Structures are given as C-alpha cells and as structure tokens.
Protein 1
Amino acid sequence: MPPSATKRSKRGRGAAADEQLWSGRFNEPVDDLVKRFTASVQFDRRLALHDIRGSLAHARMLAACGILSTRDLAAIERGMRRITVEIETGRFRWSLDAEDVHLNIERRLTALVGDAGKRLHTARSRNDQVATDVRLWLREEIDALRALLARLASNLIDQAGRHAKLIMPGFTHLQVAQPVTFGHHLLAYVEMFERDRERLADCRRRVNRLPLGAAALAGTTFAIDRSRVARELGFEAVSENSLDAVSDRDFAIEFCATASLIMVHLSRFAEELVLWVSPRFGFVRLPDRFCTGSSIMPQKKNPDVPELVRGKSGRVFGHLMALLALMKGQVLAYNKDNQEDKEPLFDTVDTLRDSLTVFADLVAGIEPVPAKMRAAVLEGHATATDLADYLTMKGMPFREAHEVVARAVREAEELGCDLPDLPLQVLRRHSPRIGADVYKLLTPEGSVARRNHFGGTAPAQVKAAALRARRRLRTAKR
Ligand code: ARG
C-alpha cells in the first residue's frame, strides 16, 4: 500500500482524492492514527472480487427496477471490468485513506466512470454490502474446504481398504484393550471427517442468505427487487429482517465452531501419529518429506507436521472465542465491532485449508509397521474379553466369567506371560468349561474375526465399511 497522503483537505471543495467519501459533515480531517485504527483495507481487500460481484448484481437490479439508467449501468460494468483486471494483476492502488475494500473500489470506479460510479451506492449501505461480501466469500471457501475433507477421507479409505486385515492393539485409557484392525482404526476418522463435511454443508445453508437490501439497517426507500439480486448471486434465500441482516455474524461463528471441530478431529489423529512414530510404539513410519531433523541431535526425525496441526487447533479455537466475544452483548443493529470478524475468519479458513491439505498428503504416505503392531497386541492380554465371551457362551453368567478371566490374567502376570500363553491345564484350573478350542479365539486374528457385525472390526466388516464410505463420498460430492 502506498504511504497515505496526509494533505489537509479544505471544506467545501468537493471530495479530494484523499478525502473520505463520507466526510461532508466533518470539520477537521480524521487523525492519522484514527484513520489507521479504523481502516480495514489492509485485510478486507481479500474480499475485493466478491465485493465487485455483489456491486454488479446490485447495479443490474437497480437498472432493471428503473432506479439506474442503462447508460450508468454500462459505465459501471465497464469500470468494474477494468478494476477487476487491475486487482488481478496487482496494479490496483489500495489506499488507507479510503478505509476499506468497499470505498477503495467505489472511489476507483468513480475516477474511471464519473457520476455513474457515485450512483452505485443508491439503496445500499456498506453495512449490507460487507455482510453480503463475507457471505459470498465464505460460501466459496466452504465448498473448497468440503472438497479437501473429501480428499482426506478418500485417502483414509484407500489406506483402510489396503489394511483391512492388519491387526493392531485398540486402546482405552491408552492401555491395550482389544485387537482391532488398522483399517478399522482409520475408518473411525473417516466417520469424523464425514460428519464435519455434513456440518459444513449445513452451515453453508445459513451462510447462503442475502443481506443486501437491508441498507444501513432499516431497508431503503427505493423499490428494489431483492430476490433478483439473490438469484443472480446464487443465494438460496433473502434475509427476512433488515436489522438482523446487517448485524448478526452468527454464520461466521457457526463456521468457526465447525472449523474448531475439524481441528479437534485433526488434532486427535495428529496426536496418534506423534505417538505411533515414536520408537516406543513404532506402529507407523511417515515419509521423510513430512519430518524434520534436530539442529543438535543428529539421530532425530521429528513428526513436525502432526505436531503443528495439533498446535494450530488452539489457534482456531481462539478465533471461535474471539467471534463469540465480539458478538456478545452487541445491540442492534450494525456496530463497527463487526469489522473485527474478518481477521479471525480469514485465518480460520487459511489454517484449516493448510492443515487439511497437508494432512491428506500425510495420510496417503503413512506406512504401517506390522511387526511392531503385532508385538504390542501380544502384550497386555488383549484377548481377555474373548475368553470371558467364550465362557459366557458356554453358559457362565458374564459377570462371573469376567471374574474368572481376571484371576487368570493375574496368574499370567505373575508368570510373566500373556493370557493365551497359559497352558490348558492352568486355564482349566480357573474354569473346567475351558477346552482346547479356546486358543484359536485368543489369537488376535480369532478375536477380530468374531467381531463380525455392522460397525465391528472383523476384516470383512472393515472392507464393507470402506466400500460404503467410498460410495457415500461419491454420491454426496455436493
Ligand atoms: N469495513 C466495515 C466492516 O467491515 C464496513 C462497514 C462499515 N460501516 C459503517 N457504518 N462504518 O464492517
């Protein structure tokens, strides 16, 4: 941005180039610090192309309603084409003096096409304008984020299908609990990310309503056609109340809440990856391109990418809190506080986009280490529940079976072996109902194979679940 000229403009000479478009009623120029403090162009210029789209739809509606001449409309369209090129090629001169993206563009338009530019703001306010811009922008970002979630889910499904039979320990309380398959574990995240994608679609419905026409707060005296604007801009509905339309940012809060949940899910997976690549677990290897070394310890290969994703979740939660606090207690209708919605919202989208992109790549590169998984599942009596189920099937009440197996586990602990390593006569001392047929059930393979129902971890179920997930992804592309 060029350093802003600080010439004092004289009253009554008409707006000089560096004068605020709203300065008619003021007796002295705005203080330089105040100008910088109140300006938003440094960040809201990101909305420029959406601002132009909104303005064009507004101008076309004004012309269709006979409020703007067709000559003026043609001039506005010509000017906006030129401005679009200037912005896209980086030649547009953004100025702090013009405060925000809306006034920068309007001022340039007026410089290019004269009075027609000054007529564009008929029946409109920056209050309904900015709400429209943010909604247009966010709608597009939501679509892009949904596509990224789909890519992440797709990569997870690929891996899950590939490793539907690979056995690893499942954990509760981070203690070995029962064997599961690696594919089953990965599909748990597919479920989370699919719900996130649904949540985004749901949020989009409420983002996709048109505020324009609310003007400053009370509507306008002009006979405008709001549904025409909504149609042209692809909004599903027109906001019903002008005060609400210009003031509430609940759609942005809702988006940040959804984004926070996505980061929660990413952070859970990130944490598992950090554990799994540590030599203590060693369950997976990550491609070197996702890891970094240490500047002092030559042996280190650190999982920086998952760690950063885990860390960035805090930043997104912070933005959600910022927006909640921003909105809390705001009286109707528009207040300048709302200008503060943009930076948290932009950063949320950027953080989410990068995190999802890098994670999708990372997931595709995960290489499991079956031997390490197997060693871990053979420690910790992972099939103790299977023995209890076996006894229950032989007629023992489950609570009693639970007791019997607990005692057998204690004996195995004392002998320093795992439950299935106990000889048959030792097991039979705990219950004579146990026969030699029990051992195949106490293997990790036997354990997972018998959890063969919808949602279970049997390899056949995991393969079927992967297929279903793949189908869902294909049919629900939008
Ligand atoms: N830059 C402002 C914002 O982001 C635009 C609306 C300004 N409206 C006003 N009455 N000052 O909220």
Protein 2
Amino acid sequence: MSEEINKENPKGNYDADNIQALEGLEAVRKRPGMYIGSTDTKGLHHLVWEVVDNSIDEHLAGYCTHIDVIIHTNNSITVTDNGRGIPTGMHQKLQKSALEVVMTVLHAGGKFDKDTYKVSGGLHGVGVSCVNALSNYLRVEVHREGKKFEQIYAKGIPQTPVNEIGTSDKRGTIVTFLPDDTIFEELVYDFDTLSKRFRELSYLNKGLYLTLIDEREKQEDSDEFKKTSYHSEGGLKEFVQYLDGARTPLLENPIHIEGKEDNVEVEVALTYNTGYQENIFSFVNNINTREGGTHVAGFRRALTRIFKQYGDDNNLFAKAKVTISSDDFREGMTAIVSVKVPEPQFKGQTKGELGNSEVTGIVSRAVGDALKYFLEENPNQAKRIIEKVVLAATARHAAEKAREMVQRKTVLTGGGLPGKLSDCSSRNPAECEVYLVEGDSAGGTAKQGRDRNFQAILPLRGKILNVEKAMEHKIYENEEIKNIFTALGVSIQDKDGERVLNIDKLRYHKVVIMCDADVDGSHISTLIMTFFFRYMKPLIENGHIFIAAPPLYRVAKGKEFIYCWNETERQSAIEVYSKGKEDATGIKTQRYKGLGEMNAEQLWETTMDPTTRLMRKVTIEDAIGADLVFSMLMGDEVPPRRQFIEENAKYAKIDV
Ligand code: 0RA
C-alpha cells in the first residue's frame, strides 16, 4: 500500500497497522469454538458473559458499582459499567492506543492489571477482543480522565482510530456489539438466561447493581421496556436463603463465613432444612464449578471434622445405634462455596472442577474456624443440627437395607421385569425407548400405538412419590419407583452398600416421560424428573431422559387436519383452511386436554413416531435453576409454590 493511498484512505492505513492483531483474531474467527465453546445459543450468550466478566473484574478491583445490560431490538447488546474505563493512553510497545490493543489483541485485556482475579484458564476470560472478533459491529466508548473516547470495529478490524469525542465527568466503559450472523447459528438473546445469570452474579458479588433491559419487549400494561434489576447486600447469605426459600429452615439464619489466605478469598454460606437432600453449589471466580473440586473438598472436610468433634465432645452421638458417616453431616444442608483464586486450574471433562490443591486447606481452615465458633456460640442450633445428623445416620441404615432389596430383585431375578412393563423386542439398548406413561388408560393406548420393535411402555399410576419430601428408604419401597429401577436395569449400590448409580446395563437409551398436557400432567412429569434429578442424575447428564410433547390442538376441515403444538400454529392452521377468505366455516378445533383423548394411531403419529414427534431432551443446563424449580414445586411451603405455579402457568407444559 503506497503512502498516497494511505492519506486518501485513513481507514486503509488502520487496517495495515493491524496485521499482528489480525492474526490472533483471525484464529478466533476460524475456530470460534476453541474460544467461546460453541457457536450455538450457548456461544451467543457467552459473548455477554465475556464483556460482563470484564466489568465484574472492575467491581472486584473495587472500582465498579453498576453494570447495565441492554438487549436491543436487533439482538445487539450494550454493556455499560462505571469501572475505571479501558486505558486509552499510548501502548509503548505496540505504538497505539491501549484501548485498541485491549480490543484487538488476544488476551491483552488483563495485562495492565495483575491484582484482580481473572478467570483465565477457565471457560470465560478469553478477553473482550474475542467478542470483537466475532461481532459484525462493535463500538466501544470509554469515559476516563475527564474525556470521552470512541472506536468502532467490524469483525474485530478497527473502522476508525480511537477518537476523542468530548468531555465527561463520569468513568466507565460502554461496549455495544452485534454478533456475526455468519458465525452464530442462533442470534436471538434469551432474557431469562441473561437474567438468571445476573441474579446469580449479584449474590456472588455483593454490593454490585446489575440491570437488564430488553428493548424487544414492553412491560405488561406499561410503555416501559421489560427490565429486571439485581442487587444483594447480604451476598451468599441471601443466596442460600433464596435457594432454600421453599424449604423449612432448621437454623435461624444461614451461617456466613468469610476468609482470606494467600490471596485466595473464601466465602461460604450454609443452612439446614428439614428435608433430606444435600445441595452444595460452588463457584470459582464467579464461575459455577458443577463438578466441585478442591474448594468443595475443603468445605466437606471442615464440616465433618468440626461437627464430629463437637458431637463427640458433648456426647451427642450416644443415642445413635449406627455409625455416623460423613454424608450424614450434609443431609438437609444447602451450601454455597465461593472462592476467588488468582490462577485457577480447571479439570474434568467439562472443566467444571477446581484443581488447585492448595485451596483445600485454605477453605478447610476458614470454614473450620468459623464453624467451631458458631457451634460454641449457638448450642441450641448446634444441638438441632447434631440431632438431625443422628437421624440421618439411622435413615441411611434403613435406606441401605431397602436398596439392597431393590438391587437383589433387579440383579438376582436376572431381568425379572415389572409385570406392568410392555417390553419391546429389541435387546439393543441404543435403539430402545421406554415410555413412562401417566395412567393405565393412556398406557393402554400407547401400547397399541407404539412400534413394539423398539418401544416399551411402562404405565405409572397417578401421582408418583414426592422424592423431595420422602426419606430415602421410602423411595425404594415405592411400587412405581421400584418398577422404574427394575425396568431400566440400572444398579443402585456398590459392593459396600453405598449408593452409587451404575447405568452400564441401562436397557433403554431413551427414557421418555409422557404425561397429559395439563397442570396435573406437568406436575407429574416434574415429580418424575425430580426423581431422576435426585436419584439418577447420570441419566439426565448423559442425555437419556426426554419429555414427550403431545399436540395441544387438532384443527380439521373436512377430512383434512393439522396438529398444532401452540396457539401460533393453531392460528396459521386456521388461516390455511380459510385460504384468505374471511369465513372460517367448517373448521373445527379440537383441544387435547389429555393423552386419553387421542386414539392409538393419533398418539403414534403425533407423539411417538420418531420421524414426526417433538421431544424435549431434559438437560441439567443449570443445576441451580433446576433445583429451585424442583424445590419450589415440591417443597414444604405452599405460598411460594402456588405463586410459582401461577406465574409459570403459561409455561406449565414446558416445565423445566
Ligand atoms: C484493561 C485494563 C484495565 C481495565 C480494563 C482493561 C477494562 C476492560 C473492560 C471491559 C469492559 N469494561 C472494562 N473495564 C475495564 C485497568 C484500568 C486501569 O488500570 O486504570
């Protein structure tokens, strides 16, 4: 490029300067999955997490109190924060504005600033330059040192220099980006996904104000845009209260623990409820570590050590006729373990497990000291916890025996299948499906309608047991649940009698829950899902659980008909049959309230035929959200549950 052309075309000059940066960003565009995981809806949302993470880093460094996110009508996003603002001075080595370096050089974001907790090595933390590379358009505005700066990019390439565009009495960074439609398969942002994460972030970063505005939608009965704001002064303490909101608490207040050692920050909140489930949620640098890791190990270790010591010292275990195991200390406990680690190492298949070994001791010491203090200061609550631990040990013993009975039946009788199961003829689990059908009558229809080569039917009678409220041994005594275990052929305990699910001998790779499309049906499918969530989680994690989606309407004219799964489809079906004419005579809509209203053929062609059916795969997309739904629907207290069902009535058929 000659000097002359450069003068006439300052933009060209800009491009030429950027060869080095481009190489990095070119790699991001070539293999986006390597940097943001995927190019589906998850990757799309990842762009937001990336920018917001940078703003949160400013909060962690003590400079940012407010983060506002806007979804614009074209699904572009604006993230505004009141942090320090990206530096705009000259970058000595690269001889250009630091702002441009941060926005166009891979991993340049944190170079200036080593004191805060970056999430490098994790799933986030690839840098805001990745977002830039994957956006058709990105504009950054920085307010800093009394001035206002701006730069615009396309696919990561600067389209303007860094321009000073005015004065400002504020500080902060504003990033607007439009994801590249040639990279992402999905371009529509989901309000609930963003909002859920912002709620979580507000608890994890107390004091921070987070606001989400959706310009695509107006609020009900108002001219304002849909909007939600989060702010928590109590942090994790409020988080556990929120998570356990539908359960009956055993403690007056959650125990809140904070500590710091060797630059590792520890924050833990825990509480006990009258239920039997253990719920530990863990985070490293604000990222959910679904598989736990060294921080969770440290927490568990301290909990066992301190409670055991306290129980022994005060002779509180004397009543127990069985030995206390470490699991017993966690029954009915909900806890959040959050650590901030300068250089986290993530392990495991999904990188959802913290590996830094030094963290175990740090967490264990912080939690141990605080728990010891709590027990000594609160003897009444301590007694309540220990009594529950003793009860848990007794119940565990009973559960072991009950499990053994179920196990013996499955294993020893060698495929002694439940009488109610109509099995399929194939013995190849990979192609086999089992339908868990609500009610004997729908079960009968499904049996007639199915393809018996690969589809098995197991009817379940009415309501199945609410596993959220029942003690474990009751679960194994329940007929319907026993039938599910036996039909699936899974084993539920190891040689030592420990509860371990083994799905190697799973007889069907697709387990389909099929219930009526009404409120009762959705309740039943939630009950069944709760059961899978609590007792057969690997089946969900490995993608074996599905929810059948029967149609809601059948719109017919004469001999022709169309099945419809929602109101929009119904409207367009009516349109098709009225063929532009205003009158819709002779068009009949049948509303299916239950599976029972379909005959075998209809059930097959709408809901069971693999070539035409709609099925929803049940995922543990967000264990926290799922747990909340389950506990809200299944928990002890009625008011939040009723409110939840009412608020979600229109989504009732979708459930989780
Ligand atoms: C580099 C260095 C510093 C801050 C940032 C980047 C920064 C990036 C983003 C992205 C969105 N909001 C942001 N806010 C800040 C440190 C600044 C300093 O040392 O003054």
